[in-house]
Write a structure and sequence with these properties.
338 residues; mainly alpha; three-stranded mixed sheet; two-stranded antiparallel ribbon; 9 strands; disordered N terminus
Length: 338
C-alpha cells in the first residue's frame, strides 16, 4: 500500500466466527483464497449479523450491508462498524467521498470475491467512425518470405503494434535465390528494442489474485469510450487503498492492467487514457522515494504509448502542469533509450 496506517485492535463481537487474516503475510496468490475460505466458514454469522447502513456520495444514497462482512474485509471499517464511535452506536455511517458505483462494486466483492466492470460508452454513430487504430501503416511494414509464409510485420521503428508487440520470431527457413536456385538460409531473430521490451514488461505484469486471469472485452471501434471502464478499476483501487482491503487492491490493479494491455488506442481515445492519468495523480498520496502501484501501472503504460498521446492537446496541457506526473513519466521514458 502507499500508506501504512496502524489501527488499534477492535473488539469484534464476531471474532469467534471470523478468522483474522493478515493478507500481507500470506504467500503470493493465497491471500484472496484464504479470505474466501474464511467467508465460507463464517457465512452463517455474516447473515446473522446486524445490517449496517451507509449513506454514500453527495446524494447520500442509502445502502445496507451486513456488519460482520464489512468488518471482516477492512480493519478501518471494522472500527467504524463495531467500535466506540457514534456511527457504530447509530448503525449508520456517511461516506460522502465515495461514489455509489464504487461502493456497489466493493459490496459485490465483499459478498462474492469479484466485481462487475463498467461498460464502455458509445460517443458517436459507429458507422461514421474509422476503425483504424494508431499503428504504422501496414503497407510500410517490411515482410520477409519464409517457405511460403510471411513473417510478422516489423515496423520501421522496431515498435510494431501494441496489440501484438511480441518479440518477432521467423517461421521456417529464409530462402534466397542464387544462380536460379533457391538456397535455404538459417532463421534469425530480429533484434528487440528497449521500447518493445518496455511494452512486453507491461503486458507481463502480474498481481496476487486468486482464480483465473481477467479477460476484458476488447474495444473494436474508435467510438467506444473506455473512460469509465478504466476509472471503475482505479476508483475501486483508491477505495481499497484507503480502507485497507488488500486483496481488492490487487484485483482492481490486475483488471486495469489486463484492460490496458488489450486496449486499442485510437486517436479519438487518447482522452480516455489522459483522464485515467489525471485521476491516478489526483487521488493517491505518495511519499518521497515511493511510487504508488496505481501510478506505477498507469505511467508505465503511458511511457509505452507516449508518441501517440503526444498528438493530443489535452495531453500536452497535462504535461504543462508539471509535478510528479511529468517526473515519473521522464523516469519511465529513460528505460526506452537505447
Amino acid at each position: 500500500m502507499s500508506t501504512e496506517v496502524l489501527y488499534p485492535k477492535p473488539q469484534n463481537p464476531y471474532k469467534q466466527a471470523v478468522i483474522d487474516i493478515d493478507s500481507d503475510t500470506l504467500p503470493v496468490g493465497k491471500a484472496h483464497t484464504a479470505i474466501t475460505t474464511c467467508m465460507a466458514f463464517s457465512y452463517e454469522s455474516v447473515l446473522a449479523s446486524t445490517p449496517f447502513k451507509f449513506l454514500i456520495g453527495r446524494s447520500r444514497k442509502l445502502f445496507t450491508v451486513h456488519a460482520a462482512l464489512i468488518a471482516h474485509h477492512s480493519k478501518p471499517l471494522d472500527i467504524l462498524v463495531n467500535g466506540d464511535m457514534s456511527e457504530a452506536k447509530e448503525g449508520c455511517a456517511l461516506l460522502d467521498d465515495v461514489d455509489e458505483y464504487t461502493f456497489v462494486r466493493f459490496s459485490q466483492y465483499a459478498y462474492t470475491g469479484d466485481y462487475v466492470t463498467a461498460d464502455s460508452d458509445i460517443v458517436f454513430d459507429s458507422s461514421a467512425i474509422t476503425t483504424t487504430p494508431i499503428t504504422p501503416d501496414k503497407a510500410s511494414l517490411g515482410r520477409v518470405e519464409y517457405d511460403g509464409e510471411e513473417s510478422q510485420p516489423v515496423a520501421d521503428d522496431e515498435w510494431g503494434t501494441f496489440q501484438s508487440s511480441k518479440k518477432v520470431k521467423k517461421r521456417g527457413k529464409a530462402v534466397m535465390t542464387w544462380g536460379g536456385e533457391e538456397i535455404a538460409m538459417p532463421a534469425v531473430d530480429a533484434p528487440q528494442s528497449k521500447k518493445s521490451k518496455l511494452w512486453d514488461s507491461f503486458k507481463s505484469k502480474a498481481y496476487s489474485i486468486s482464480g483465473p486471469a481477467f479477460q476484458p472485452r476488447k474495444n473494436r471501434e474508435s467510438c467506444e469510450d473506455y473512460t469509465e471502464v478504466f476509472l471503475c478499476h482505479a476508483r475501486l483501487y483508491v477505495f481499497a487503498d484507503k480502507y485497507d482491503v488488500g486483496p481488492l487492491r490487487w484485483l482492481s490493479l490486475h483488471k486495469l492492467q489486463r484492460t490496458l494491455a488489450e486496449f486499442t488506442l485510437y486517436d479519438e481515445r487518447a482522452g480516455d487514457i489522459i483522464d485515467l492519468m489525471r485521476y491516478s495523480y489526483s487521488n493517491i498520496t505518495c511519499y518521497a522515494g515511493s511510487l504508488d502501484e496505481l501510478r506505477l501501472l498507469v505511467i508505465h503504460y503511458t511511457a509505452c504509448v507516449v508518441e501517440d498521446l503526444a498528438r493530443s492537446v489535452k495531453f500536452q496541457l497535462l504535461l504543462e502542469e508539471g509535478g510528479s506526473l511529468a517526473r515519473d513519466l521522464v523516469e519511465q521514458m529513460l528505460k526506452r533509450l537505447d
